[in-house]
Write a structure and sequence with these properties.
The complex is a heterodimer of chains A (about 300) and B (about 350). Chain A is an all-alpha fold and about 300 residues long. In chain A, about 70% of the residues lie in helices and about 0% in strands. Chain A has a two-stranded antiparallel ribbon. In chain A, strand 1 and strand 2 form a beta hairpin. In chain A, helix 4 runs antiparallel to helix 8, helix 6 crosses helix 7 and helix 10 runs antiparallel to helix 12. The longest helix of chain A is centred in the N-terminal third of the chain and has 30 residues. Chain A is elongated. Chain B is of the alpha/beta class and about 350 residues long. Chain B has two domains: about 220 residues, Rossmann fold; about 100 residues, no CATH class. Chain B is built from 13 helices and 14 strands. Classes of the chains: A mainly alpha (about 300), B alpha/beta (about 350). The interface between A and B is large, with 48 and 60 residues.
């Protein structure tokens, strides 16, 4: 692994003046600096890991283009002329963001396994700064992946309306943050990368399937409807879909069938409340992650 | 310019009655010592976990069960943050991010410690030049050999000009040449910066480099002084005899000379005062029935002998014994443990 040659030690050039630095007392500013560097490290690592950019997008694109195109004929009876690809596009964007965000959260397990976490743990900064930096880093990386998916919107029959794009971008940014917080919350308790991957498989796939990314959240069998309403991803997919559908010219029948909205005991949950829930859940999970991380030795 | 508070204490580290219990086992049993500012202090404990536990308590990573310790004038429990601002740490296991470059690793450290932005680069050049890695600053750490990584970690530990640098086995697993160069840096560092160095090692020859060393055995400090003083205190030279029959030789030495010898590394060795005068006497009185002596070696006391005289085993035996020592320690705990 190490290809480098070892230098023989010759006396280094005499340094004229020792540069002495001082470590200031902890302050708000120093915490912000810590958050920023932890965030930047995530971005540097993302940039150097091109493979990850591709691998986390393979699955969403498979669903969007292969499943979306393949099932088109079967589904056309129920979609009232709307392409299946267009219908599942918002959901696919959400899961692309979710996959990346979970992978980013995994870096905390990786850091623990390879010892780097210790370097951050002994620094004179709050544990919360490390967690916040990680979450912001993961959210940024996931949103960059989300932007790639936004770029192919046209291929799924979604128009490039500036306001809609902006709305989608903000929504996926919030989702990315919440999911990273969720991932970090799980990751701080796990010591091995392999276990984390296992846990992730166990959580991510069901969340994706239940969320309504691939079907409208109405007229479901009772048990599935309950699970669907409990799945946080539901509340990101639904407003995202509404946003896209607002910019499509489709029949009212199609709209009613494909974008019924999420209901609680018959009450239709407004989009803003749904977005608020995504944010609130993210903050709660961030809080739990910080609390747990502060307790670890 | 040194930073920190004005009333700098004379001792960089002060430890009073420090105890750490893990479940049933007492890893550290009330140790006391002081490390003066500017000292290179070696901590040896080949038998067990005592030294790592001690270093972890001093670095605020582990809370003591009882007793107190202060580092750079700050209490390790009550003023954890102040301690952390003033110490540098080099762990036994690597803690670098291999995907970042050497410079990025140091930059990250400087940011976490709040080093003033305009000082980050000059300081980085200085510490990286010291360990001979400045020309590799933009290489990713994954391309570094084990020795280079350790040197980079030392440089990183110095990034924020700590007043006390903790090195936990800084030379473990390195080749002799790299080991020597790391010691060169440490000595150089001591001359250039106002820094106190607290280190653990299990290489006895390296402990000689320290100004003072503490030897820990079963959770207690059994000896603490300058290496020279400790060696002089042994009072005997080490004589090693090679024969074909170690057991018979040990018996003969006990019979004829009243010397208690032991097998050590494939030969028989024992300590006598004035070893060089003893050798002629040995040959004069060596019975022809005894196994013939093939080689004799007389050595001035080393730290190994110091260790042996205090703990009754050579450092290598002690390491091989580590498993058994652990159970012995448990026995001692059950019998109330010793105090000193």
């Amino acid at each position: 692994m190490s290809t480098a040659t070892e230098h023989t030690t010759t006396a280094p050039a005499p340094a004229p003046e020792v540069v002495r630095v001082t470590v200031p007392k902890r302050s708000f500013g120093s915490e912000l600096r810590a958050i920023r560097i932890v965030w930047r490290r995530e971005l540097i690592r993302y940039r150097s890991d091109r493979l990850r950019m591709v691998t986390t997008l393979v699955q969403p694109f498979l669903f969007l283009f292969v499943l979306g195109s393949g099932l088109q004929r079967l589904a056309s009876a129920g979609t009232h002329g709307v392409s299946l690809r267009t219908f599942i596009y918002p959901g696919i964007l959400c899961i692309a963001v979710m996959f990346t965000a979970m992978f980013s959260a995994a870096s905390i397990v990786w850091d623990r396994e390879f010892g780097f976490l210790r370097e951050m743990m002994v620094a004179p900064v709050r544990r919360s700064s490390i967690v916040i930096g990680k979450c912001l880093g993961g959210a940024s990386v996931a949103s960059i992946q989300g932007v790639i998916v936004i770029c192919v919107a046209g291929l799924a029959g979604v128009p490039y309306a500036p306001l809609m794009i902006l709305g989608i971008f903000v929504l996926q940014l919030l989702l990315a943050f919440s999911i990273t917080a969720f991932g970090v919350m799980i990751a701080v308790r796990i010591k091995q990368m392999q276990s984390f991957m296992g846990v992730m498989q166990m959580i991510v796939t069901p969340m994706f399937f239940i969320s309504g990314a691939l079907f409208p959240p109405s007229g479901l069998p009772g048990w599935l409807a309950v699970l669907n309403r409990l799945d946080p991803l539901t509340y990101a997919v639904d407003p995202m879909r509404r946003l896209v559908f607002n910019h499509l010219s489709i029949s009212p029948a199609a709209r009613a069938a494909l974008d019924p909205g999420v209901t609680w005991w018959g009450w239709r949950v407004p989009s803003l409340l749904e977005v608020g829930m995504v944010v609130a859940l993210g903050l709660v999970m961030l809080g739990i992650a910080i609390w747990q991380f502060s307790r670890t030795e | 310019m040194t930073g920190g508070n004005g009333n700098q204490p004379s001792a960089a580290i002060e430890v009073r009655g420090l105890v750490k219990n893990y479940d049933q086992v007492q890893a550290v049993k009330g140790v006391e010592f002081e490390v003066a500012t500017g000292e290179v202090f070696g901590f040896l404990d080949p038998n067990g976990a005592g030294k790592t536990t001690t270093i972890n308590m001093l670095c605020t990573l582990v809370k003591p069960t009882a007793g107190s310790a202060s580092v750079a004038g700050h209490d390790v429990v009550r003023e954890r943050d102040d301690v952390r601002r003033n110490i540098g740490l080099v762990f036994q296991d690597p803690t670098l991010d291999g995907y970042l470059t050497a410079a990025q690793n140091l930059q990250l450290h400087a940011e976490l410690y709040g080093v003033r932005s305009d000082l980050v680069n000059p300081r980085m050049e200085q510490v990286m030049s010291m360990v001979g890695l400045w020309d590799r600053k933009d290489s990713s750490v994954n391309t570094f050999s084990g020795g280079m990584r350790r040197r980079l970690e030392i440089a990183r530990g110095l990034m924020h000009s700590p007043r006390v640098l903790f090195l936990d086995e800084p030379t473990i697993g390195l080749d002799p040449q790299t080991r020597r160069s790391i010691w060169t840096y440490i000595r150089e560092l001591k001359e250039r910066e106002e820094i106190t160095i607290f280190m653990t090692t299990h290489y006895m020859d390296e402990a000689e480099w320290c100004d003072r060393i503490a030897i820990m055995d079963h959770g207690e400090i059994v000896a603490l002084d300058a290496p020279e003083t400790l060696k002089a205190g042994v009072g005997t030279d080490r004589v090693t005899i090679h024969t074909d029959d170690d057991d018979a030789t040990i018996a003969a030495l006990a019979d004829q000379f009243g010397i208690e010898a032991r097998k050590s590394e494939g030969a028989v060795s024992f300590g006598v005062p004035g070893g060089e005068e003893f050798v002629p006497r040995l040959f004069l009185n060596w019975d022809s029935a005894n196994p013939p002596i093939k080689a004799v070696n007389v050595a001035r006391p080393t730290l190994d002998d110091v260790f042996m005289s205090y703990t009754g085993s050579t450092i290598r035996d002690a390491e091989e014994d580590a498993g058994r020592a652990r159970s012995r320690r448990m026995m001692q705990v059950m019998h109330g443990g010793g105090r000193r």
